[in-house]
Amino acid sequence: MTGTGEPTGYMERTRLYYRALGYSPDYVWAHFDDVPFARLAQPLAQSRIAIVTTSSPGDRSNADARGVRRVWSGAVSPPPQSWVTDDLAWDKDSTHMRDRESFLPIETAQGLAAEGMFAGLTPHFHGIPTEYSHRKTTKEDAPALLSLLRDERADGVLLFPI
């Protein structure tokens, strides 16, 4: 919590964490001056939704020979049951990866679609790597993801960062 009682935002919390570890200067996140988001063209109940996560598949099939990760896709049905993430850097004291629904909620989304909240899911969910390269994020990963979303005719996206 901040001094005002409001929760500390993710980016500020991360910035403070890296400062406490002695990193300087502060990391600068990739951003767009013109945000590429738009309102839905039809009601949500008529929209086909894609799930996008920043998690990676357990078999590392989304990495090239040099270990550079790329945008990838997985089938919504059946959903993957596990991830192998022990070699990645994340706060293992505060969270875990045993509950896939917490970072890739396919079954929950399917239940919401069955209730009529939206028309359904695209056949695949998509993963986008969290790289430290602004150039790769903006010039490679974002366009690759957009292409996949257009190919599957997604009307909207649910984003699940990990």
List descriptors.
5-stranded mixed sheet; globular; alpha/beta; 5 strands; 162 residues
Provide a brief overview of the structure.
The protein is α/β, with parallel strands linked by helices and 162 residues long.
Shape: globular
Helix proportion = 10-25%
Number of domains: 2
Uncertain residue ranges:
none
Rg (C-alpha, Å): 17 Å
Q: Which whole number gives the mean pLDDT?
A: 83
* H/E series: HEEHEEHE
Q: What is the number of beta strands?
A: 5
Strand content: 5-15%
What structural class results from the helix and strand content? alpha/beta
What does it look like?
By secondary structure, the protein is an alpha/beta fold. It has two domains: about 1-30, no CATH class; about 35-160, no CATH class. The chain has helices spanning about 10-20, 105-115, 135-150; strands at about 50-55, 70-75, 120, 125, 155-160. Strands 1, 2, 3, 4 and 5 form a five-stranded mixed sheet that branches. The radius of gyration is 17 Å and the shape is globular. The two termini are about 20 Å apart. The model has no long low-confidence stretch (mean pLDDT about 85).
